[in-house]
Predict the structure of Enoyl reductase (ER) domain-containing protein.
Amino acid sequence: MTSDVGNENCLGWAARDPSGFLSPYKFNRRDVGVDDISITITHCGVCYADVSWTRNKQGHSKYPLVPGHEIVGLVKSVGSNVQRFKIGDHIGVGTYVNSCRVCEYCNDGLEVQCSKGAVLTFDGIDTDGTVTKGGYSSHIVVHERYCFKIPQNYPLASAAPLLCAGITVWTPMMGHKMNQPGKSLGVIGLGGLGHMAVKFAKSFGLKVSVFSTSVSKKDEALNLLKADNFIISSNQEEMKAMEKSLDFIINTASGDIPFDQYLSLLKSGGVLALVGFPSEVKFHPASLNLGMKSISGSITGGTKQTQEMLNYCASHEIYPNIEIVPIQYANEALERLIKKDIKYRFVIDIANSLK
């Protein structure tokens, strides 16, 4: 739906076509409804979804497309029914902004699994038929239910990556009880998601082994993130030495991996949780059956768990490693993300750069 020209109330950066190139774009946000919150965006994390969608990798991107679903800021105004927030509060919005609110998943606080499909924060179709636009923008209007309290003592810039990268690894870790001290976890891939998995796991008291194709990550894995073990996944001897040693593996990589080999590293009853998107998942049935093993998948998380994770990070002083950049650097940031040239998450400083 196009707005009256000259009457646009929001400034963002949008991709106009599958080149994915972002540039300034004015558009209209809806008026604040009785259950809505208008949020002045201060920061937005840069997620690989921003690359995929701006470049139409899924084939359904609707242009102009304003990416960004790791959104934090300040409450600017609230609708008359809003209970949990007041003007000036620190607030966050993650990967979805609406859902049916009546299905079993919504009723359980697992709105991301809404049976009618959660409305994505950008490039989704909202209930009024408009296309949603994300956090590379000056403000956003969201129903209270899909907003999160950012604890006052937690830096806003650091909170942004928790809303996708953080919750994406937290959800399967909680779901499979990967928070039991003394258990062992393998983390495949050491990017935005992987580094958060290591931080959570160490906080829970787990023994953590990082698997990477890149020997250059060894020092940061062991010394910066305090992993217990670093394995070059192409080194067959190192891999063989890990057989039947892990309770859990979380795969954050989207490159293809040898699933049979990784399943052999799990103890009996072990779980391989998949949060990345390899081109295929291929394994021999015996790799599962003989050791009662499981492969499971997951994406972000519900509103209940997201708020629990934010509170946990604040009380345990867990912070993502971030590089703060201005909005004018967004195109370079996406290019560097494609090259994996970031430790470990870009965060756009919207407040000080979007003019």
In short: Residues 1-5 have pLDDT under 50 and may be disordered. The longest helix spans residues 303-316. The radius of gyration is 20 Å.
